[in-house]
Amino acid sequence: MSINAKMAIAYALLIFMSLFWMLPFYVALVTSLKSHEETYTTNVLQPPSTIDVTPWISAWKSIERAFFNSIIVSLPSTFLCVMIGTLAGYYLSRHVSRATRTLFFLIAIATFIPYQILLIPMTMFLAHIGVMGTYLSFIIAYTILLSPWAALISSAFFMAIPKELEEASYIDGASALQTFFRVVLPVALPGIISTTIIIFMSIWNEFLFAVTLSTSPLIRTIQPEVANLRGTTTVAWNTLMAGSLIAILPPLIITLALGRYFISGLLAGALRGTR
């Protein structure tokens, strides 16, 4: 088989897989543009006979506050997770000792513990410090939950950076912090962006803690509010699909805008294994 034939088969498979992967998005889009009656009388793959934007308006009115609540929660939580995780990951990747190896191992364990186990202790802790029912409860919970994950991811990127860059900076008289922010951080920027995207998407899409900590509709985040769009007696599929598509917009926009950094960061981190 010639190289051109192999390339054609590979591209055909990739196109098929892409279309197959996009099928749920297509179903959600066409469903969101149908009337309530049409969602029950037509095939899910069938385009709407008449485009109806009423479900989008209804969904936005229902989740508008939750949408901005999620932004208020996700941005500072992501910033804190990435800042703490980046500093911790840099320290773990550069100061190799028995203590740091043990700490790295403990962070890895903490990362892969099912976070549902931490729901009750976390809720008790947040209630004890008096922040339940506020945005701060979400920010503290997500920072505690995802900072180890950010440290684990970022440490792999820092391992791929040659130590000679830092040694040259030290020779020029730079301090450790100056070296980190002026030399290491710019080089590791694709990895940091990749970490930021992963953490932001994890926070934005999180459901269990969002439901538990939403003690008031005033601070409820986007995912529980989208789930509430399903209705009571019958499922309003068109409104639910419209709300779901609105909910994915921030992660989608961020991924598309920073996609090239995300891919290069993942490749950079994949070139080096963990300890």
What this model shows, in words?
The chain has 275 residues and is mostly helical. It folds into two domains: 1-52, no CATH class; 62-270, MetI-like fold (Orthogonal Bundle), CATH 1.10.3720.10. The protein contains 14 helices and no strands. The relative contact order is 0.15.
How widely separated are the two ends?
Answer: 42 Å
Q: Helix segment count?
A: 14
CATH architecture verdict of the largest domain = Orthogonal Bundle
- What's the CATH topology name of the largest domain? MetI-like fold
Largest sheet: none
What is the element string, with H for helices and E for strands?
Answer: HHHHHHHHHHHHHH
CATH class of the largest domain: Mainly Alpha
Q: Overall mean pLDDT score?
A: 86
Fraction in helix: over 70%
Task: Sum this structure up briefly.
The protein is an all-alpha fold and about 280 residues long.
Describe the protein's topology.
Elements: H1 3-32, H2 36-41, H3 54-94, H4 98-112, H5 119-128, H6 135-159, H7 163-171, H8 176-187, H9 189-205, H10 208-213, H11 222-227, H12 237-247, H13 249-257, H14 259-270
Helix pairs in contact: 1-12, 3-6, 3-9, 3-12, 4-6, 6-9, 6-14, 7-8, 9-14
Describe this protein with a few key phrases.
275 residues, mainly alpha, MetI-like fold, 2 domains, 14 helices, globular, disordered C terminus
